[in-house]
Amino acid sequence: MKTLKNLLKIVPLLACAYAGSAQALTINFTYDPAMDARALAGFQTAANRWQSVLHDNVQVNLNIAFAALAPNVLGSTSSRQGTLSYAGFRQALIRDAKTSTDFQAIANLPAGPCLSVMMNGTNVNPAGAGSAATFVDNDCDANNRAVTATWANFRALGLIPDSDKGSDGSISFSTGFASIFDFDPTDGIGAGLIDFTGVAAHEIGHALGFISGVDILDQVYTRTDLDDSAFTLVAPADLYRCSPASKAAGADIDWSADARDKFFSLDNCTTTLSIFSNGRANGDGQQASHWKDNRGIGLLDPTAGRGELLAISQMDLMMFDAIGWDVPEPASIALFALGAAGLAGARRRKQKQA
Ligand SMILES: [Zn+2]
Questions:
Q1: pLDDT tens-digit profile of 167-195?
Q2: Cα–ligand 1 centroid distance for 56 (angstroms)
Q3: For the whole model, what pTM was predicted?
Q4: For the chain, which terminus, N or C, has the lower number of CB atoms within 10 Å?
Q5: What distances in angstroms separate CA 303 from CA 3, 8, 24, 74, 195, one per listed residue?
Q6: 34-40 long-range contacts, Cβ below 8 Å, gap at least 24?
Q7: 140 CA to centre of ligand 1 in angstroms
Q8: Domain ranges of the chain
């Protein structure tokens, strides 16, 4: 979900490191006939961005439409999801590993069948049922043994047969903001306007797999009728979610719904790469399935400012790489980007654009 940030922000146009090699990912849209040509073109541009950086030979099918959404919500995604054993998911990551990011990630994932999870709430909490206090859940029952991922993420890992042509999710854009979308990012985003293509790319990113089960815990952790095993919702991105406290307590991940900082790390917080949002209800007010807001971390930041141009970042790509998508090594990306920048420069001069 991408929400509107009520701040006027001037963000410099960043060079995007989109690789130019052969496309393999195909994003196929089924669209509401009411969508106009500009919106469809914006979605296609957004799809092209992902297709140019993710090289898995799979087709992802998405339904797109405009709909009435909650106030301040620009776009929303509901994705088809499935649950696999943690051990099975880890094996799939190992089979798919190609980059240094992949190898670092899998080297630090627990080799056994279970994850040791720092969490809170639940009726097994030693501090009391529904308590906000954190505890380490390492009883190796259902939630310690499962990974819940988007169908598209499973496709990237070769876990879904090509014969499955079903929908991978639905993306809705708010009808309430139709008048302030800027559909043409090539000349920047107008002051007071919202980058439609960028928000579309953001929502596609959720469908491709940038999700967090912490958002569910965040909504229900005070309930006293749910034990830990009800939360078989650890997402691929959650495998790389940790904190100094979870590391010190011997947990593999920090899956708590609270306001403490949670970090993106490929080695259980020995080295922290980035920082996540931590929950609408009990965290910083933003869904945990995002980077921390307003840090310039990447496209999967939770809000879009007026006038802000949204782009896929190296940190976004590192996450998609780590959860099972095929991303070129950073060195290759840099070379491709140089080539692409040269072409773009030539076009810019011709068109006399800034
Ligand atoms: Zn979002």
A1: 999 999 999 988 999 999 999 999 999 99
A2: 23
A3: 0.88
A4: C
A5: 5, 12, 29, 9, 11
A6: 34/65, 34/66, 35/64, 35/65, 35/66, 38/183, 38/196, 39/66, 39/173, 39/181, 39/183, 39/196
A7: 31
A8: 2-351
